[in-house]
Design brief:
The protein has one domain (about 15-105). It contains four helices and three strands. The chain has helices at about 15-25, 30-35, 45-55, 80-90, and strands at about 40, 60-65, 95.
Length: about 100
């Protein structure tokens, strides 16, 4: 599936979020090298927006894990996670943690 109509991250941002994005842009190199490779715990997301954002960061790999601490966070369905993995694998390696079993049912 090729995502259509790539939306800008700014399309869903308020004023504070836009400030944060500007800080992110100024520190992109540092963020890429340290933080932008982990999605844990994964929370429900907009597939197109998240995939496009991660692609823009150009990570070498992405680690994805579920909420293993029982925090009752809003989690995506296993089908949605698989769709994200499929999109991410088009441009990077994806590593899944072993804590997704309960989401697969």
């Amino acid at each position: 599936m090729k995502l259509k109509n790539k939306r800008s991250v700014k399309d869903k941002m308020n004023k504070e979020d836009k400030k944060d994005l500007e800080i992110f842009k100024k520190n992109k190199k540092i963020i890429i090298e340290t933080l932008a490779k982990i999605i844990e715990p994964i929370m429900d997301f907009d597939l197109e927006l998240l995939a496009n954002w991660i692609e823009g960061v150009e990570p070498e790999f992405v680690n994805i894990g579920a909420d293993s601490k029982g925090n009752n966070l809003p989690e995506p369905s296993w089908d949605k996670i698989q769709s994200l993995i499929k999109e991410l694998e088009k441009f990077t390696k994806v590593n899944l943690k072993d804590n997704f079993e309960r989401l697969k049912s």
